[in-house]
Prior knowledge:
The structure holds 2 protein chains of 2 kinds. By secondary structure, chain A is mainly beta. Helices cover 10% and strands 29% of the residues of chain A. Chain A contains 1 helix and 5 strands. Chain A has one helix at residues 18-24; strands at 2-5, 8-11, 33-37, 40-41, 57-62. A 5-stranded mixed sheet of chain A has the order 2-1-5-3-4, with no helix packed on it. In chain A, β3 and β4 (40-41) form a beta hairpin. The longest helix of chain A has 7 residues, at 18-24. In chain B, α4 runs parallel beside α5 (85-96) and α4 packs across α10. Chain B has 10 helices and 8 strands. Chain B starts with a helix and ends in a 32-residue tail after the last strand. By secondary structure, chain B is of the alpha/beta class. At the A-B interface, β4 and β5 of A face β5, β6, α9 and β8 of B.
Amino acid sequence: xxxxxxxxxxxxxxxxxxxxxxxxxxxxxxxxxxxxxxxxxxxxxxxxxxxxxxxxxxxxxxxxxxxxxxxx
Amino acid sequence: xxxxxxxxxxxxxxxxxxxxxxxxxxxxxxxxxxxxxxxxxxxxxxxxxxxxxxxxxxxxxxxxxxxxxxxxxxxxxxxxxxxxxxxxxxxxxxxxxxxxxxxxxxxxxxxxxxxxxxxxxxxxxxxxxxxxxxxxxxxxxxxxxxxxxxxxxxxxxxxxxxxxxxxxxxxxxxxxxxxxxxxxxxxxxxxxxxxxxxxxxxxxxxxxxxxxxxxxxxxxxxxxxxxxxxxxxxxxxxxxxxxxxxxxxxxxxxxxxxxxxxxxxxxxx
Lengths: 72, 269
């Protein structure tokens, strides 16, 4: 099925869940992104049980903190 | 307030613009912008806001200038290593433009001080480098109803969004809470192309000026992402999150608190 991931068309297997899409797209660990599906931000608890459909638009929104030493 | 002859000369390139004029420049001179963090993003923001004649610029940073900063924190010079960042930044801002009153806050932004500081300003720029601070600024600006620019950079990427609290998508609408330790590297772990700070920090200053002048379309409900290698900007449309823990109808966060600073278990350096 056709999915639009981060603005680009992808041809992917039917029945993909959001969790499996993250693995397929090599987003590791999944905690580094927030996921928007068709304009809605998903709760992390929804990743496992949300199945994607033809034409769905998915955006991975990356945490970007920047800078210095983490444990200040 | 009217502009002196020197100011008319200094700001002539603004004044010529129909959309700004002398009235717009006077507006900038009576405006107040707070920059949290005198680092990568804060540097270009501070330089351009001083050049633009923002009347009062506040800058918060608890650190001293470090050699590793100089690759991207362009407001600081080699001779500033060891100097308080807010002092180094203030000196350069005043040298660019004596019209600007610079207020320095040599301290960490924390739940017990940030609301008082923010209260004095019209617009806030998040130039911080860690997630607890980013969430703190988002929350504080929500409680104080202050518009602000959120941004971050890492490796070859950058992103930013402008938030009008209570009206447009906030940081927590998108990112509920800080990520767990080790999930996201910092620049000191993963690196960053220095000039990205200039690209994104300058965009933040642009948003501040547009807001103050009421010009153009603000970057609200939109996360602008930049991939420097692909030379690609994307404007990702967002909506306010009806489950946002801060700004929704049923908020879980009703007071300002410092998020736990996650200690990273990756080796530093």
